[in-house]
């Protein structure tokens, strides 16, 4: 088990035994970095952020880019998530953003998140990526009467103050037309989120990057980065890569000692996913799964779920605090219990797949895209990286070429450091206990 706070690197570890991995043929291993090589820009990490940053650097700015991946394309979070393309990132609602900053800032962030969803959709269409995009719609489900009132206010804020489209769905209609979720109290619906197969999307990104001349090395853990008079030198077990600039694109999988630029600035959090056996038409009707739109609830410790194209239900939520406990059966059991509380007829349905992966949370609950003196990163998606990584990578490529981003908290500001960073997992442990208590209160 790779734990980004305690493990040296993930090289040589097996890919996740996920549902996504069962749907594709993994491409042959790409070459490792050997000997001494030179490039214009080195990108560390071949997930969504790394491959898309490389793509935009090559496609829009004509830069020579080399991507260095410690394991395989598809090892990290980009192929372990639930495949939710969401208009949002972090834990902050738009009304909270307006209170923290101002209304114009909240609208600017909303526009960036909306552009991210459109950007992913556009690449799927232009590159003809067969990643099984499903019907549009993101359902944020109230888990209590108090949460219902909050979502009603949120819908009014988005439509009234933001001037955007949102809908609150009353509880009875929600259960009848969308999901017969036994613990739901209605839902806020945004119209342009959707689900897809994230590993197929990632493979499409990798193919397009290579078509643009991007070099991808696999099984090539970067052991250190050194600033030199000419730029940077990246050391791997097999060789060296000299570059004029370097991008850190590992998100939660970034090695803790790789750069002081990111030391103590993110909290890796484990998310667990289960996928059921295919449900028959009779089971779908009995359970009340009437939509394939992506859904997430309003709990402090959220659950997320969606019906897949082959009528399996994907259901995800928080896992262990420490990586050494990640494979304990209790976390799979808890997820199934939560699924059955929401959809009781699924009590006897088999679980066909379960896996886990790391996401990165920031101290201020928003992602940060930052560059300084030839180094850059995009990190802290808080679980919404499938979509926002696309917009973030485009902005990051521009920033590395002198293009000024919008004046928003997302851009140009470094990730804030966690206080007492060595003990952040203990803080997470305490927060989980607090979250479970709050969720029981509603």
From TrEMBL:
<dbReference type="GO" id="GO:0016491">
    <property type="term" value="F:oxidoreductase activity"/>
</dbReference>
<dbReference type="Pfam" id="PF01266">
    <property type="entry name" value="DAO"/>
</dbReference>
<dbReference type="InterPro" id="IPR006076">
    <property type="entry name" value="FAD-dep_OxRdtase"/>
</dbReference>
<protein>
    <submittedName>
        <fullName>NAD(P)/FAD-dependent oxidoreductase</fullName>
        <ecNumber>1.-.-.-</ecNumber>
    </submittedName>
</protein>
<dbReference type="InterPro" id="IPR036188">
    <property type="entry name" value="FAD/NAD-bd_sf"/>
</dbReference>
<keyword id="KW-0560">Oxidoreductase</keyword>
<feature type="domain" description="FAD dependent oxidoreductase">
    <location>
        <begin position="40"/>
        <end position="397"/>
    </location>
</feature>
């Amino acid at each position: 088990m790779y734990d980004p706070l305690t493990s040296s690197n993930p090289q040589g570890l097996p890919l996740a035994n996920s549902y996504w991995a069962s749907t594709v043929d993994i491409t042959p291993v790409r070459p490792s970095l050997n000997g001494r090589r030179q490039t214009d820009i080195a990108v560390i990490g071949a997930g969504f952020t790394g491959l898309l940053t490389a793509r935009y650097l090559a496609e829009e700015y004509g830069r020579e880019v080399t991507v260095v991946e410690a394991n395989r394309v598809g090892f990290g979070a980009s192929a372990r998530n639930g495949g939710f393309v969401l208009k949002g990132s972090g834990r902050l609602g738009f009304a909270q953003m307006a209170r923290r900053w101002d209304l114009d800032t909240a609208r600017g962030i909303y526009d960036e998140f909306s552009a991210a969803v459109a950007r992913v959709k556009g690449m799927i269409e232009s590159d003809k990526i067969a990643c099984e995009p499903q019907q549009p719609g993101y359902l944020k489900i109230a888990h209590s009467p108090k949460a219902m009132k909050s979502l009603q206010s949120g819908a009014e804020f988005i439509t009234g103050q933001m001037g955007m489209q949102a809908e609150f769905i009353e509880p009875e209609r929600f259960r009848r037309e969308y999901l017969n979720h036994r613990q739901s109290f209605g839902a806020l619906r945004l119209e342009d989120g959707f689900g897809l197969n994230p590993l197929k999307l990632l493979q499409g990104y990798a193919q397009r990057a290579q078509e643009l001349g991007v070099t991808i090395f696999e099984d090539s853990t970067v052991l250190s980065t050194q600033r030199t008079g000419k730029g940077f030198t990246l050391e791997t077990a097999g060789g060296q890569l000299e570059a004029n600039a370097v991008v850190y694109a590992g998100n939660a999988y970034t090695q803790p000692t790789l750069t002081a630029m990111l030391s103590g600035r993110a909290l890796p959090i484990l998310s667990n996913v289960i996928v059921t056996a295919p449900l028959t038409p009779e089971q779908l009707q009995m359970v009340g799964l009437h939509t394939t739109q992506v859904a997430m609830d309003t709990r402090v410790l959220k659950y997320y779920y969606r019906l897949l194209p082959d009528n399996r239900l994907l259901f995800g939520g928080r896992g262990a605090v420490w990586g050494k406990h990640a494979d304990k059966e209790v976390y799979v059991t808890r997820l199934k219990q939560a699924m059955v509380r929401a959809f009781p007829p699924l009590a006897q349905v088999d679980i066909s797949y379960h896996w886990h992966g790391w996401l990165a949370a920031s101290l201020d609950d928003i992602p940060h895209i930052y560059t300084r003196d030839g180094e850059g990163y995009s990190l802290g998606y808080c679980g919404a990286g499938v979509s926002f990584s696309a917009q973030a990578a485009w902005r990051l490529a521009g920033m590395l070429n002198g293009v000024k981003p919008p004046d928003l908290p997302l851009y140009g500001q470094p990730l804030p450091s966690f206080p007492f960073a060595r003990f952040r997992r203990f803080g997470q442990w305490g927060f989980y206990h607090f979250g479970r208590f709050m969720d029981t209160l509603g």
